[in-house]
């Protein structure tokens, strides 16, 4: 049991909690959420005994063993596997004493220590540590590599593995998915669900919270508010509570009205395809939880590019990667302005390589990259955060791009990304990772791209900023291609998935649950093939068959491309027809048109145009309906 009783907590001049009370039961899995600076990390320090409250008390019972992920690695010379295993201090002590007893020839002490080692299940611990490393994406041949041979992100994964290896009654994790890909996130999710102790988790990944935690503890207005369920349950419950507060009512209604309007506009042009229908449902869910975010400091959009090309970008028979070792082979596709694609695939399969090649940062090994005349790419990747000018301010970054733009206009724009008041004049060198990521996104948005290439855009972003980014991407008029371990972002912003695996890029006929199943089947299939290969020394026929099946599926999807293109073109034609009709009907709304005799000819011309435009729109809608139904029917017949 963990009880906070009338707790007051302060860091410097900032009061984080004031007379806050809440009780958490043993075995609960609790997610901590709240604005940056609300006190989530300070609450962890309090539990670890690193902070003392100014008032009230904290009572903890049954938590003799607390595991907490360190942010720094102190010993960089140990092999990775040894570093993880050293997290089990009792096991490390017994192993050291066993060596000493063997050297001293102390048989009695050896017998005692072997008994203690057996109680700790010491003989299976190495395999357990190896499973943790494999689950977090480490290749087996790297287990013995020294820690200092790994990059910063992989060292953080090592720290996570070490923390999970520690025996604990209470596990404290602060942003554990920040440097994980989707595969490792899915593995960690399953591991934490099976964890028998009490878990306190700080995370900005809402789907991860939904699937792991049983309760949500929200730090707001210096209080601790406990909600039952995951993050989605919290949103609904908080939305209901805020709806009852008169001071928030008008702002809430504006937010809901905006969402309803966007849903109406999206439905008007959505096809009957499965992905489009699921996106409509996702948008309707977004509408319901909109009130829970009315006090968010982030409200921005990606302005529409002044010009665009169709296609935006074409890849033809391209090998991508490096001359001696291409990562992807024979890549070919066309990107159109309205495509919204999520990239899936195992770690190291080539997702980032594909994006770098599309940007032009990585030259093709062979093949063609053909850019449209009016292609404007907005590229986000983690390394760009470090490329920001640390001596400059957010305002100066935009002024360099648009020196003639007024300062107030630039500051208004930056305000939507959370840089309000003096924050727009702060030096970037003082920024956190989240603030740098927000600025990088603001710079991209300001330049009005028509193709967004996003490589893990939500790393370092808090939940409110992720929510705002999701809304902005939903309304973005251009094409989107994104790699992300944030499943909520993917589910709510992309219509199709591409699978990057085994040196190939192909359409993935399924959703994120389907990908999780594919990944599980792939991993178990690899294990079976390895066992069979060891027995027979021959590759398995079923793997060849699966490869042929994938090629056949790709061929069938290719056959449907002309029909899909026809549906897309009809949608664009309907959009144009609706816009023309809207202009005519706006003109007809002028009351003077009906009373001024001199404008009779103008009125008749407008009425005739209205009739012609309505008929043209009806014809297009009928063609679109027939084409959509044909596409659905052929897709079903081909089993795609």
UniProtKB/TrEMBL annotation:
One of its GO terms (molecular function) is ATP binding. InterPro entries: AAA+_ATPase, ABC_tran_Xtn, ABC_transporter-like_ATP-bd, ABC_transporter-like_CS, ABCF, P-loop_NTPase. This is Probable ATP-binding protein YheS. SMART domains: AAA (SM00382). The keyword ATP-binding applies. Keywords: ATP-binding, Coiled coil, Nucleotide-binding, Repeat. PANTHER family: ATP-BINDING CASSETTE SUB-FAMILY F MEMBER 1 (PTHR19211:SF14), ATP-BINDING TRANSPORT PROTEIN-RELATED (PTHR19211). Residues 553-637 form a coiled coil. Residues 523-536 have a biased composition (Basic and acidic residues). Residues 2-246, 300-527 form the ABC transporter domain. SUPFAM superfamilies: P-loop containing nucleoside triphosphate hydrolases. Belongs to the ABC transporter superfamily. ABCF family. YheS subfamily. It comes from the Bacteria. Residues 523-552 are annotated as: Disordered.
